[in-house]
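Quick one, probably user error.
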């Protein structure tokens, strides 16, 4: 168990399980996009660890770019997306894979997909380490999912609680009081 500010968290997914699933996601992407060039767009801040580990397993010709958005305050979604840093890579007629640490409501991913489609990419798919199907309100579910998890708050491996806990190797779940 760990303590982050006023909350207690317990181990949910161990580091070895995470890395095994990241490798499996990379294998699926390598197979599906064989012979194609891919642009990965990682959503900061949360997806930095996932993106780094995934890219190391990608054998395709690829690029990676980063977009920073915000839709959380504390442990709950604010219900809107605030774009903070925009896309600097040209994606017209290219295959784009959005990398997310977690997809829960789908609000962030829907907004990003809408913005990307304006640039006329050849395709846009979503790859997320974590997916909360019970919280999802979006239009299209992610195509590549590492773990489907319950609708509980998690931290670690890039995910944060008020900007704390991103550096933890495992994923922790909020402890029930």
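Nope, works fine. Designed sequence:
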């Amino acid at each position: 168990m760990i303590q982050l500010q006023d909350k207690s968290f317990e181990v949910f997914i161990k580091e070895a399980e995470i890395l095994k699933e990241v490798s499996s996601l990379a294998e699926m992407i390598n197979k599906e996009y064989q012979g194609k060039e891919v642009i990965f767009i990682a959503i900061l801040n949360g997806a930095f660890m996932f993106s780094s580990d995934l890219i190391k397993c990608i054998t395709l010709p690829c690029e990676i770019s980063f977009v920073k958005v915000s839709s959380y305050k504390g442990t709950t979604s604010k219900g809107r997306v605030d774009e903070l840093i925009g896309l600097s890579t040209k994606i017209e007629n290219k295959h784009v894979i959005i990398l997310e640490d977690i997809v829960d409501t789908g609000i962030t991913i829907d907004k990003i997909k809408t913005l990307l489609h304006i640039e006329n990419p050849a395709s846009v798919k979503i790859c997320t380490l974590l997916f909360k199907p019970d919280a999802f309100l979006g239009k299209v579910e992610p195509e590549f999912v590492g773990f489907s998890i319950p609708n509980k708050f998690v931290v670690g491996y890039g995910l944060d609680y008020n900007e704390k806990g991103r550096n933890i190797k495992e994923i922790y779940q909020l402890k029930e009081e």
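The chain has one domain: 16-150.
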